[in-house]
Amino acid sequence: MAVQLRVLDLGSRTYGSVLKDMQELSAARPRDCTDDQLWFVQHPAVFTLGQAAKPEHVLAAGDIPVLQSDRGGEVTYHGPGQLVGYLLLNLAKRKLGVRALVDIVEQSLIELLKTFQVDAETRTGAPGVYVADRKIASLGFRVRRGFSYHGFSLNIDVDKEHFSRINPCGYPGLEVCNLAEMVSSESTESLLASSKSRLADILSAALSASLR
Q1: Where are the beta strands (DSSP E) in 30-179?
Q2: pLDDT digits (tens, 9 = 90+) for 49-74
Q3: Where are the alpha helices (H) located in 3-56, listed in sequence order?
Q4: Which of 22, 32, 188, 190 is the most buried (most CB within 10 A)?
Q5: Which sequence positions are flagged as catalytic?
Q6: What is the pLDDT of residues 117-144, one digit of tens each?
Q7: Model confidence, pTM
Q8: Contacting residues for 50 by C-beta, under 8 A, at least 6 apart
Q9: Which domains does the chain have, with CATH numbers?
Q10: DSSP three-state, residue 57
Q11: What is the CA radius of gyration of the chain?
């Protein structure tokens, strides 16, 4: 049986509630399950700490909650105007390792940005996607029982001040950017909608190619 990718749009949900749903689904999936899913969501403002996160990288959280997560990586910010995608995949069935998954997602995000005439790139040793040395997308995964969960976040039109309250991904002074800065002709809502549609197609194609 082919491994399909089902795309769900969760709207706006708290980070904690979606994390709980991901953990429960991943724990309950049979090992031969082929119902792979991509969840799109926006979160209310929150800082999340990955398993490698150092508390000192949270500089001044203020009124934004700080939550521990079980994903890989350091501290990051999620909030309105940011497209978050969670990939709940049977990596064993797809014969994919974490490094290959990261490569697929990074290249898919770069391909998406190209559809907006934005040139982006990766950095060796620093997962994510960058535009002119500014970070536009972050990645972090967890694999349990051969299943992946967590995923990526893409800055569409977030409040960048919130990133100044942390060392993003553990890098002091790392600058971030928004897609809306480069595509000023479209509204935030339009950019979010078109990004979800295009990225769902791009990721589906890239993950299907990995099965061949």
Answers
A1: 35-42, 46-49, 66-68, 75-78, 82-90, 121-123, 126-131, 134-144, 147-155
A2: 999 899 999 999 999 999 999 999 89
A3: 15-28
A4: 22
A5: 169
A6: 999 999 988 889 999 999 999 999 999 9
A7: 0.95
A8: 69, 71, 72, 73, 74, 75, 76, 140
A9: 4-209 (3.30.930.10)
A10: helix
A11: 16
